[in-house]
Every structure is written in C-alpha cells, then in structure tokens.
Amino acid sequence: MILSVVLLALVVLASLALVLEPLRASAPADPDAAERTRLEAEQDRLYGELATLEDEARRPDLERRAALTLRALDALPPAPRSGRRTRPMALAGAVLAALVTVAGALTFVPRWQLASLSAGEAQKVRNVLSLPELRRQAEAKRDQTAYLAWGKAAFGAEQYDQAVQAYGNALKLDARQPEALRRLGILLLTRPDQGGRSAKPEDAQQAFLLIRTAAQLAPNEAESQLLLGFALARFGQDKDALTALERYRTLDPQGRDADEMITALRARQNEDDPGLRVYAASCASCHGPEGAGGAVGPSLRASTLTRAGLQNVIVLGHGAMPAFPNLKPTELKALLDVLERWQKEGP
C-alpha cells in the first residue's frame, strides 16, 4: 500500500512538471521532436486501449508495450525548454497531466497493488473488478459464452447470487452445459438459505443430480470429479467419493482442493474397518494409502499371493519387507480380508 502511494505521488509530481513546462524558458529546437511525438502518440493510444479494454487476455501485452514506450521516452534526451508562455500550452499540459495521472491510477498502481497479494487473492480482486462489465455484456448479448464468463467471474469472486443468475441463464440456452450444472449444484447443496438453514432434502437431491449429470457429461474435467466427490461425501457414499476425488487428482496433479476431504474420508473408513486401521498404521507408508504401491513397496492390489502366502510375508517378513509377528489374530485376519478384497478389485 505504501509503495502504491509513493508511486502515485511520483505520477502526480510528473504531472505537475508537465503543467509547468510550457511556462518555462525556451532553448533551441528539439532534434528528437519527431521521435518524441511518435512515442507520445503511441503512449496515448496504448493508454486509451487499456482504459476501454474488453478482452482481458490482451492486457499483459498492452501493458508490456506501454512500459517499453515509456522506457523509450525516458531514454530520449530532455526536450529543450520552450520560451512561449501561452495559456493554450499550459492548458494542454494540464490535460495531458490529468491523462497520465488517471492512467497511472487505473492501470499501473492497481497492478502493483495486486503484486503484493497471493495468486488466489489477486485473481479474486480481478474477478470482482470485472463483474460489472461482464454482467453488462451478458445482459446485452444474451448468449451462452457471455453468461458463462459472467458466471465464472462471479463464482471466483464469491458473488454467488450473481453466479446463480448467470449460470441459470446459461442453462436456459443449453440445459446440458457442464460448468453451469455442477456449479449451480454445488451452490444449491452447500449454501444456506436466508434463514441460515442448510439445503432441504429435496433441494439437496436436486443439487446432487445436477452435479452427477455434469460429471457424466464432462468426465474428464477435473472440477466435475472434484464437485462430484464432495457431493458423494455429503451423502455418505465415501467409497465412491474417494474414487471421484482420486480421479480429480489424476486429472489435475497440481490441484490441492481435495486433500483435506480425502484425508477425512480415509480416516472415516479406517474407523469403520479394523483392517484399514491396521493397514494405515503398518503398511500404507510403503505400499501407498490404497495398496496401489508406493515409493518403496509394490502394489498389493496386483499381488497374486494366496491368503496363506500373504500371512507368511506379513508375519515373517520377506526381503526388505519387515516382519510383524506381534499382530493380534483379529488384526491379522482383518488386514488379510482387506488385502484379499483389493486383489479382487485389481490395480
């Protein structure tokens, strides 16, 4: 924030210098006048485009070109001072100074402010700032692309009432649009009503149908699997929820949105299944959380050992595999039940 104030102050000071410049003494003609005029015209054009920009994808390129133009202007020798002390020139300087100040306030200063935020926070700010224009475009064009752009920005900005309105309009144009279906579904499922109450059973069921339909229409979109996993967990279908969330992590290896839910679901499974409790405590660190293999141990799901063979390896150890002779009979039986079940399910 302090940096932004300092930068804005510098812009204001530069503007004042431009205002006073026409009133100062003159010098010989400027040998760089043509190049300076061209660069200033390019600067004004770029600022104008930035001020009326609709396609945000072009903003980084325009800002880069504006910065290069400013750098080229700075590299020119100072212009000779003009000796004409006229009101029109002073007025022109004031207008140009105002343009520079406004452009600095509306473009460069907000960008530097965003640089101090995390990536997620900065994106949320951008979404909030873009909402009025996206809404205006959607209500003017009334096409699916515009409604989806508005809905996506509103969802990212946590302006959920606008997201519901935008996605609802998109579904009126195409009832099988996956993004609109799943996001309306998750909002209906998780948002409390005006009285602070959670979704009614019939609304929750409708929300689940929307999310499941979206996952069927777009099974390879990571968000479809993520929201399906959340919905399944909400309805207590832990096994299917884990499958969907693991699928999400396969589709988006960098995604971290499902980590807490996966941990909670596995813990819940371990509480209900004594074999999984034993496995989590003694085996998962080497063979992976689901027995599919880890950094050290091989996949137990792909194992062809008989129950007796599995028992011998567990109790006596084998190669790098340590022995676990102190397992209680009930614990050993429960663990073998889990391993045999995984063998049948396969890798």
From TrEMBL:
* GO MF annotation terms: electron transfer activity; heme binding; metal ion binding
TPR repeat ranges per the UniProt record: 144-177
List, alphabetically, the PROSITE patterns matched: CYTC (PS51007), TPR (PS50005)
Query: Do the record's keywords include Repeat?
Result: no
Pfam families from the UniProt entry: Cytochrome_CBB3
What keywords would UniProt list here?
Answer: Electron transport, Heme, Iron, Membrane, Metal-binding, TPR repeat, Transmembrane, Transmembrane helix, Transport
| InterPro entries xrefs | Cyt_c-like_dom, Cyt_c-like_dom_sf, Cytochrome_c550/c551-like, TPR-like_helical_dom_sf, TPR_rpt
Q: Does the keyword Hydrolase apply?
A: no
| Cytochrome c domain sequence ranges | 270-347
- The transmembrane segments are 89-109
What the entry lists under PANTHER family is as follows: CYTOCHROME C-553-LIKE (PTHR37823), MENAQUINOL-CYTOCHROME C REDUCTASE CYTOCHROME B_C SUBUNIT (PTHR37823:SF4)
What is this protein's record name? Cytochrome c-type biogenesis protein CcmH/NrfG
Query: Which organism does this sequence originate in?
Result: Deinococcus hopiensis KR-140
